[in-house]
Amino acid sequence: MIESLSKAPAPPGPDLTASITSLWVYPVKSCGGVQLPEAILLDTGLEFDRAWMVVDAEGVFLSQRELPRMALIQPQLKYHDMVLRAPGMLALHIALDQVEQPVRVTIWDDEVKAYDMGPIAAQWFTDFLGVPARLVRFDPEEKRLSSLRWTGGVEALNQFSDGYPVLVVSEASLAGLNEKLVAAGGAAVGMARFRPNIVLGRAGGDDGGGLELAPHDEDRVGVMHIETSQGPVQLKPVKPCARCPIPDIDPATAQSSPDVGDMLQTYRQDPRLNGAVSFGMNLIVLQGADCLLKVGQKVSADYCFEQGRSPLTT
């Protein structure tokens, strides 16, 4: 009599499966975003993300926080150059492979090496913004690190981002916010206000099946895994994204209204940030630099409830 062979149980699948529904880069810090079907992942984040920055006469960075009109500056990435357009301005062409003299500039508490992009770019930004301004490009030899306290000692590189290489937001998180805004008599808002690099949505095949993400699932997971044709990618959520007034600015008009910030104050005050409002998660790159991320790729992760990572209610 032949005994039946028992099969070992299959390993459990990931707690969460999603897909990349859009990819965004913001070539000039605090200016408009560029939506891409695919983007190369570097140690510093997506290629060309925050590679340029606008500074004042003292070399200190400028942003929408003080100059909402920056939202109206729209970049377009081409093969050899970046084209910047803004209302009432001729297009400004910036070569992707050329810089001018080296300078030192300040972003938050960091003074870093950069390259000035010349007098024509400086005049263009000065004319549109109405304040003395220059355009600079990050020096790739500079080593600007994320906070080691939040990364657990991992040296995560940045260019001119606020502090972390990649920002992820889920469509479910935005849908939850918009449901609250509409219920309060306000208008729904678009994802562009939150300036993510990676947007996560429903994971489904050709049949449309898949798992529904809950709002702010990106808060609750550990390392995110993405399989690419160049190899595996691992992105680790390390810090909730504290929100300044920029989400209150309509990127289409540069007009500000407090509706978004006021609503987030009612349910997204984050004890991990001493009560500051958070929306989305900052990620660092553990593996997969030089891999190509594409819209439609699957993302998997397990829930993580480590000390200090307990999620907010939604």
Oligomer: single chain
Please state the overall shape, judged from the principal axes of the Cα atoms: globular
Mean pLDDT, all residues? 93
Instruction: Tally the helices.
Output: 4
CATH architecture: Beta Barrel
CATH topology: M1 Pyruvate Kinase, Domain 3
| Strand arrangement across the biggest beta sheet | 1-15-14-19-17-16-21
Q: How many strands, what sense, and barrel or not for the largest sheet?
A: 7 strands, mixed, barrel
Low-pLDDT ranges: none
By DSSP, the count of extended strands is 21
**Cα distance spanning the termini:** 58 Å
Structural class of the secondary elements? mainly beta
The proportion of strand residues reads 25-35%
Total domains, how many? 1
Radius of gyration: 21 Å
Please tell me about this protein's structure.
The protein has 314 residues and is mainly beta. The chain has one domain (16-301): PK beta-barrel domain-like (M1 Pyruvate Kinase, Domain 3, Beta Barrel). The chain is 12% helix and 34% strand. The chain is built from four helices and 21 strands. The chain has helices at residues 119-129, 148-151, 171-183, 259-267; strands spanning 16-25, 34-36, 38-42, 45-46, 52-55, 74-77, 81-85, 92-95, 102-107, 110-116, 134-138, 144-145, 157-158, 166-170, 198-202, 224-228, 231-242, 269-270, 276-287, 292-294, 298-301. A hairpin with a 2-residue loop joins strand 9 (102-107) and strand 10 (110-116). It is globular and about 70 Å long. It starts with 15 loop residues before the first strand and ends in a 13-residue tail after the last strand. The mean pLDDT is 93.
